[in-house]
């Protein structure tokens, strides 16, 4: 009877602990979801590829603020695979907003301020030119752009990314795809690809787009960052590999032979020095012994032990 009651008590305690942990988990998720009093109603990104390969990017971001919050906004753009970003501007309702730019941790940051009297919504338009942002090979150029960034504290309800090529490239689109959150992709016309998110994009999720087109006969050149990368990581040709192996083997054999020769020479010198030191020690001991025993004989043979002296 007592054992049965004890078992039931243990079961109740376990159920209570499980319920408590579940409640804590839900509470933490709720706190994280409500960590900032705003969300993005939408972010639309338009990428217009110019004939020289520059990309004119326009980001339209609609913030909805549900409570009091700071009135300073930021946008960070990685610089690792572009030459530079220029012509940065921020506006709202067609009016230019004062903005600042800088670099930090190989990222360009854009900062601007605005009036805020929550609850209310604000739609900001960011524009900038990306120089050397295409990925280029012998025949093709590719728009490879992270349009929706993952480092956020709030969700984005809707997102749309449009890539529009210049008329000069309109007949050369080869393929297009997206990475990250699921999207609906469609080719609007011969030069325009549209990517539309299928659901809310949570913090930590991102959207990258790829559009590959033929660059033969255009003014698009390999960007500086890619030239350095290709130079640093280009694999040697089979002939170059054979030469490297041959010279590596030759140097290895030369080193082994030199090491063996030096080792033999060192051993020979060590043996000679050891023999010389042995002879020197023997001579010294003999001289010392003669002097010592001679002194004993002269000072008193009986005291030194006559047999000892004779034995010397």
Automatic annotation (TrEMBL):
<dbReference type="InterPro" id="IPR018702">
    <property type="entry name" value="DUF2207"/>
</dbReference>
<dbReference type="Pfam" id="PF09972">
    <property type="entry name" value="DUF2207"/>
</dbReference>
<feature type="transmembrane region" description="Helical">
    <location>
        <begin position="242"/>
        <end position="260"/>
    </location>
</feature>
<feature type="compositionally biased region" description="Gly residues">
    <location>
        <begin position="296"/>
        <end position="312"/>
    </location>
</feature>
<keyword id="KW-1133">Transmembrane helix</keyword>
<keyword id="KW-0472">Membrane</keyword>
<feature type="region of interest" description="Disordered">
    <location>
        <begin position="263"/>
        <end position="312"/>
    </location>
</feature>
<keyword id="KW-0732">Signal</keyword>
<feature type="compositionally biased region" description="Low complexity">
    <location>
        <begin position="283"/>
        <end position="295"/>
    </location>
</feature>
<feature type="domain" description="DUF2207">
    <location>
        <begin position="44"/>
        <end position="213"/>
    </location>
</feature>
<feature type="signal peptide">
    <location>
        <begin position="1"/>
        <end position="33"/>
    </location>
</feature>
<keyword id="KW-0812">Transmembrane</keyword>
<feature type="compositionally biased region" description="Low complexity">
    <location>
        <begin position="263"/>
        <end position="275"/>
    </location>
</feature>
<protein>
    <submittedName>
        <fullName>DUF2207 domain-containing protein</fullName>
    </submittedName>
</protein>
